[in-house]
Amino acid sequence: MTGSANISAPATGTSGSLLFSVNGISGQLFSIVDSLSGSLFSVNDISGLPILEVFDTNTVLLGSYASPSLNTTVKTTGVTGTTDIYSINASLYNGAFVEYVVSSGSNVRSGNVVSAWDGSSIVYSETSTAEIGNTSPISILFGLTGGNAVLRSSSTTTGWTIKTIIRSI
After folding, report:
1. Which residues pair with 32 in a beta bridge?
2. Which of 40, 60, 65, 152 has the most CB atoms less than 10 A away?
3. Are 70 and 149 in contact (CB under 8 A)?
4. What is the per-residue pLDDT across 122-136, written as a single tens digit (0 to 9) for each?
């Protein structure tokens, strides 16, 4: 099968207005808003509520509108001391699952951190691969700060690259 099709919608109106939508018999299924901040696009269920929503913060909400899973990736560079990697609103979610890789030169390790919190207490555990080189100067942890569960790195040396996949429910 060959050929192509184009769908276009002229950018008219004001920033933040609906640019493109796909509507079915039961309502809006998909929409794109003319905005570079906040919600960039969403796919809705039969009631019109988003079941997939993408935000400018590189965050994707997926699943039930009443309790979606948060999904994102973060790449950052750790410094000596504590580096905040990602913050999750502790009143909206009760746990997170993080996959990570830390590296500095020829030193590298990957692992998982799982956590749970109730708003005033947080627990977490980490499992990781054996290291290549020496990764003992860096650790990945969670803490509670100002109503948020914060994924952090703690390091005694600089120059660590930290790549993460973060899921929260």
Report:
1. 20, 41
2. 152
3. no
4. 999 999 999 999 999
Pseudo-torsion of CA 104, 105, 110, 112, nearest 10°?
A: 10
Listed by start position, the domains of the chain span: 18-67, 70-168
CA pair distance 20, 31, nearest whole angstrom: 6
Q: Is the pTM of this model over 0.70?
A: yes
Beta strands in the chain (DSSP E): 18-24, 27-33, 39-44, 50-55, 60-62, 69-78, 81-89, 95-104, 107-117, 122-128, 138-145, 148-155, 160-168
Count other C-beta atoms under 10 Å from residue 126's C-beta. 15
Structural fold of domain 70-168: Immunoglobulin-like (2.60.40)
Which helix (H) or strand (E) segment is 59 a member of? none
| Tens digits of residue pLDDT in 41-100 | 788 887 778 888 888 888 898 888 888 899 999 999 988 999 999 999 999 999 999 999
**Rounded Cα–Cα distance for residues 59 and 62 (Å):** 10
- How many CB atoms sit inside 10 A of residue 151's CB? 26
CA distance readout (Å), 39 to 13, 94, 120: 18, 23, 30
Q: Which two tokens stand for residue 167?
A: 């899921």
